[in-house]
Automatic annotation (TrEMBL):
GO cellular component: cytoplasm
An individual GO BP term: cell division
Record-given protein name: Cell division protein ZapE
GO molecular function, one term: ATP hydrolysis activity
Source domain of life: Bacteria
This protein's UniProt keywords: ATP-binding, Cell cycle, Cell division, Nucleotide-binding
InterPro entries in UniProt: ATPase_AFG1-like (IPR005654), P-loop_NTPase (IPR027417)
Source species: Cellulosimicrobium cellulans (Arthrobacter luteus)
Amino acid sequence: MVEVTAARLAAGVGWILVTAPVAGGASAPAALPGTARASASDATPAVPGRARALADVRPSVPPARLLADLLPPRHFADARFSTYRANPAYPSQARTVARLEEVAVAVAKPARKGLFGGRKRSAPAVYMDGGFGVGKTHLLTSLAHAVGLDASAYGTFVEYTNLVGALGFQATVEALATKQLVCIDEFELDDPGDTVLMSRLLRELADRGVALAATSNTLPEALGEGRFAAEDFLREIQALAARFEVLRVDGEDYRHRAVVTDSAPLPEDAVRDAVAGRPGATLDAFDDLLGHLSQVHPSRYRALLDGVEVVALTGVHTVTEQSAALRLVVLVDRLYDRDVPVLLAGSGDYAGERSLFTEEMLRGGYRKKYYRALSRLGALAEDGRAVARASA
């Protein structure tokens, strides 16, 4: 596992940062190696007629912003239990909705005071186990809305590990302990170090009376690979296993879509013309963006996209370095959260999203991440083609 962990560290995921003392005795994250600590607006001045480039932006994100960004993805803003369409052919879906509604009521109840005035709560902990596209994220988001977004923290597994990397472990515990509910979407087991880290984080939060809710990440291939297996989750979180209630969500992918949508790359001229003079559009050479991502901590990728409505990339090619690929996965997740169309102009042998990562990567330990990124990027690239058509 040394090689895997090294790749994660090189990608800037799960880094442990040295903290420097600040006023009041608190600690602030020290600067990441090679990461500029500039404001989000600190970018190379725009050149008339030239689209803004993501590679020119060096965001610096205060801790309060990192916490405030722990919200459901934009495209799930309207998700509620009432809008989840349970399939009568799979009764477990309706049962899960009913149970989560009960959990929301329990979490929202005022916590009882303990003997010494602290919060005393037997907090619920639920884990939704199901295949690809059965609506687990919709249900998790609905739970957060039912409890209240001010009282909830919502993020993917990677966002929480990035948060620990940016703030430090104890500061993350203290910040999340102010919430009544912490939701973890797409819990991952492909890195032993991160799994232990998250298990410890969840244990400390549960001990403080914070309710927990998690879903799995699934590999959208054959049915046998589609289920994450609750047994694996419970085994890896060890001491927390007894606290989690497993809610099985059966069903088929309600979107009935292909695993990866392969969009043929666009001509470079068409990509440049589509973003020329377009407000909120960015234009980068693919290699320039990959290099820039290595200089920005992944916890800042969300801020990197502030004000961005369309992303255009030229010279897209197969990524052969795993650390660069993992950083790209995180960026695709943040683009998908915001529904940002992506225009891709390829180079060399690039023939669509399936050729973005090497075959070795797609068979390796991080294959779930890569397949998720391909599925999401395919959808965003289709939106990008619509942008290009509209501007032609």
